[in-house]
Amino acid sequence: MEPLYQQTHKQVHEIQSHMGRLETADKQSLHLVENEIQASIDQIFSHLERLEILSSKEPPNKRQNAKLRVDQLKYDVQHLQTALRNFQHRRYAREQQERQREELLSRTFTANVSRAPGWGLQALGSSSPLKLGSWSFIFVGGVR
């Protein structure tokens, strides 16, 4: 049991150090780093299943300590899994915001003259559409 425990414990610490790579990885290698971390986590979970079986076969005077050590590893790995999921969720949300921002910046807007006669662009003698990406807005109207 001890060699498998030591190997698994070492892998947990390696994953913890790899988690820092997520923040610094470029977009191309980010998915690769995520997949590597997830594969390591999956492997650790399979080791933990084996360690639980082995800890139950320990002599009675060592069994409780062995189970506590395995439980601590399991707790650590669950936190790593949660941290990876949280990172992925933040990344997905950030990518969606970027897509929505690009969509808004490329959308062409026109004044709705039929709802507010005299307040639109035609009141200025212009009917050209506004483009949000240009950051030039014309505010027409005011207090009457």
UniProtKB/TrEMBL annotation:
<dbReference type="InterPro" id="IPR010989">
    <property type="entry name" value="SNARE"/>
</dbReference>
<keyword id="KW-0472">Membrane</keyword>
<keyword id="KW-0812">Transmembrane</keyword>
<keyword id="KW-1133">Transmembrane helix</keyword>
<protein>
    <recommendedName>
        <fullName>Golgi SNAP receptor complex member 2</fullName>
    </recommendedName>
</protein>
<dbReference type="InterPro" id="IPR038407">
    <property type="entry name" value="v-SNARE_N_sf"/>
</dbReference>
<keyword id="KW-0175">Coiled coil</keyword>
<keyword id="KW-0653">Protein transport</keyword>
<keyword id="KW-0813">Transport</keyword>
